[in-house]
Amino acid sequence: MESSLEFSSSLGSASSLLSRCRTFKVLVIGDSGVGKTCLTHRLCAGEFPRRVEATIGVDFRERVLDVDGEKIKLQLWDTAGQERFRKSMVQHYYRNVHAVLFVYDVTCPASFGSLTSWVEECRQNSIRQEIPRFLVGNKSDLRDPRSAGGQVCQERAMSFARAHSMMFFETSAKRPPNRRAAYQQDKVEDIVVAVGAKL
Ligand code: GDP
Predict the structure, then answer these.
(1) Which residue minimizes the CA distance to atom 17 of ligand 1?
(2) From CA 76, how far away is CA 27, in angstroms rounded?
(3) Cβ atoms of residues 84 and 49 within 8 Å
(4) Confidence (pLDDT) at 8
(5) Beta strands 70-79 and 99-105, pairing class
(6) Residue 88: C-alpha distances to residues 30, 56, 186 (Å)
(7) Is the CB of 35 inside a 6 Å radius of any atom of ligand 1?
(8) Residues of the signal sequence (predicted)?
């Protein structure tokens, strides 16, 4: 499937046309601090945010892309990882979801360990197995190739993704977009293309 991308912020006068295009709700979930807000910002605005404010409850950003000649709008819902915010909002943000990004921090094994409970929360909130799911290991710029300790190895993450029918990406919301990526997984833009292609 052919996809091309443009940032909604650069659309100017085309905005009224785009307000009518099909909108898909994409949930971004994972522990607090894994980089959900930065990743959402990077995917929608094309850059790492200069200043990050803690997400209270839920927030969303939009991104328009062209899939097979049709403009669609991705609405990325950035959810707070903290239990106290999630409790009151949980049913609201799980409503009418089209895709889910599960985010963990590659330098924080605990955030990887929490994925099981995030998957379970999806199940409890009727996120069907057929809904496209993506596993995103963020902060790959902090990976130290000389030491595997304290990091989540890619093989483990890939096997988790396979077991839960997820597409896997390891990436960095921080790495500049034009830097030459050594691996296909390093390109943050591939995530948004993959989401568009699966919808
Ligand atoms: P959230 O709580 O999951 O929304 O996490 P935030 O997006 O607020 O990010 C938490 C912290 O991680 C912030 O200090 C960000 O600057 C930092 N951060 C997020 N993504 C990256 C990344 O890809 N690389 C690095 N080095 N830091 C990141």
Answers:
(1) 35
(2) 6
(3) no
(4) 44
(5) unpaired
(6) 17, 11, 35
(7) yes
(8) none
Q: Is 75 helix (H, G, I), strand (E, B) or coil?
A: strand
Ligand 1 and 38: CB distance under 6 A: yes
Confidence of residue 4 (pLDDT cuts 50, 70, 90): very low
DSSP letter assigned to residue 164: T
> Which of the listed residues 31, 34, 38 should we mutate to test ligand 1's pocket, taking the one with most ligand atoms within 8 A of CB?
38
The structure's pTM equals: 0.85
Q: Indicate if the pLDDT at residue 29 is higher than 60.
A: yes
Residue 126's pLDDT is what? 80
CA proximity to 30, closest of 173, 191, 138, 126 = 138
Beta strand 22-29 pairing with 58-67: unpaired
Looking from the CA of residue 41, the nearest atom of ligand 1 is 7
Q: Residue whose CA is closest, atom 19 of ligand 1?
A: 35
Check if 57 has its Cβ closer than 6 Å to any atom of ligand 1: no
Nearest residue (by CA) to ligand 1, atom 9, is: 35
Strands 133-138 and 70-79: unpaired
